[in-house]
Amino acid sequence: MNADKLHRESIVFDGHCDTLLEVLDGERRLGEQFAGSHLDLPRMIQGGVTAQIFACFVRPRFMAACPTAQALRIVDTFFQEMAANEAILTLATSAADIERAKAEGKIAGVLGLEGAEALVGDLGVLRMFYRLGVRSIGLTWNFRNEAADGVDEARTGGGLTEFGVQLVKEMNRLGIMIDIAHLAPAGVRDVLTLSEAPVIASHANARALCPHRRNLSDEQLEGIAANGGVVGVTFVPAFVSEDPAQATLERTLDHIDHIVRVAGIDHVGLGSDFDGFPQSAVNVGLEDVTRLPNITAGLLARGYKPAEVKKILGGNFLRVFRQVVG
Fold first, then answer.
1. Model's pTM, two decimal places?
2. Residue ranges of the chain whose pLDDT lies below 50
3. 137 Cβ neighbours under 8 A, 6+ residues apart
4. How far apart are CA 111 and CA 133, in angstroms?
5. Which residues of 200-239 are buried (b: 16+ CB within 10 A; e: fewer)?
6. Cα 65 from Cα 63, distance rounded (Å)
7. How far apart, in Å, are the Cα atoms of 84 and each of 29, 175, 242, 280?
8. CA distances from residue 281 to 58, 59, 165, 215, 245 in whole angstroms, order as listed
9. SS3 of 136, please?
10. pLDDT tens string 103-135
């Protein structure tokens, strides 16, 4: 099958980008092409993106003082950009919203908190973020917070706190995807034991191919598959290759191959982390969002069937989104 045709008819769902932080900082606008970045709306259209999880990441300097206010500023930034680009960008709070965006040629933006710091240990704050449209939350970034230990605290062996346990249960009840990216191994085990809904790892690769602490072991991949979840293969050069200078499209596809072998074709997707790593760190063949069709062509060249390619490009993420969010 023609790769470009397949790509254009597929739902392409990217599990993670950090672009809103640059917009909040006043460096750029989402609707204008900006050369010093990986992603903007004009290039997302070129790249065939259907749905994008926009991370609302509270930088470490705000975590202690005012994390909730800072997260709200990022959410507000998304709403301002959506208003300025209403012909292109829409908020998705259901799977039907994503399918409608595809039919209308729009991009469905999904709001996600990267780390539970903004919740300040309060389920009422969680429910308010849900009302604002947040449909994905990573329990930690790299550090310890009220919910759990991040990967930088893995030495302690700490898993979920009591608040973390209640958070998982309430996210299941509300219909918010639980993201285990950045979570320490004990926390991943706790989430996979507790969650009654499929979970995601929005941007992570296979540790068997690149032993970065943020990548997932085969045991973790098997656990996510057993839970019904999905792993978003990321383009971050340091997660793709032990020598980041050797990061390429082909090596990224190797991670997809490995996760398919270990977890199965239904449990792998895309999680670029665009604008979350420097442009000086280049993944050759995946330099920016316009290069996403290279993944489709590469998967077909490796013998994947069109239906399998569609799952990897976005069908698997959409399935989990539908199961969890509705």
1. 0.98
2. none
3. 112, 113, 116, 119, 126, 129, 171, 176, 177, 178, 179
4. 6
5. bbbbbbbbbbbebebbbeeebbbbbbebbbbbbbbbbbbb
6. 6
7. 9, 28, 41, 30
8. 23, 21, 37, 18, 7
9. strand
10. 999 999 999 999 999 999 999 999 999 999 999
Predicted confidence at residue 260, as pLDDT, reads: 98
Question: Crossing angle of helices 218-227/185-194, nearest 10°?
Answer: 20
Identify which of 146, 134, 114, 224 has the alpha carbon closest to the alpha carbon of residue 176. Answer: 134
CA-CA distance, 140 to 115, in Å (whole number)?
4
Per the structure block, which two tokens stand in for 271? 């999680």
| Domains of the chain in sequence order | 3-324 (3.20.20.140)
Asked whether the beta carbons of 194 and 227 are under 8 A apart, the reply is no
Cα angle for residues 213, 74, 288 (degrees, 5° grid) = 60
Strands 177-179 and 134-138: parallel
Residue 303 amino acid letter: G
Angle between helix 249-263 and helix 218-227 axes, rounded to 10 deg: 60
CA 108, 114, 270, 131 torsion-angle sign: negative
- Tell me how far apart the alpha carbons of residues 316 and 230 are, in angstroms, rounded to a whole number: 7
- Give the pLDDT confidence score for residue 326 in this predicted structure: 98
CB 216 within 8 A of CB 29: no
Q: Are strands 107-114 and 51-56 parallel, antiparallel or unpaired?
A: parallel
> What pLDDT is recorded for position 91?
98
What's residue 325's pLDDT?
A: 98
- The rounded Cα 46 to chain-centroid distance in angstroms is 20
For 59-105, write each residue's pLDDT tens digit.
Answer: 988 888 899 999 999 999 999 999 999 999 999 999 999 999 999 99
- Compute the distance between CA of residue 63 and CA of residue 66 in angstroms, rounded to an integer: 6
Report which residue type is found at 188.
Answer: V
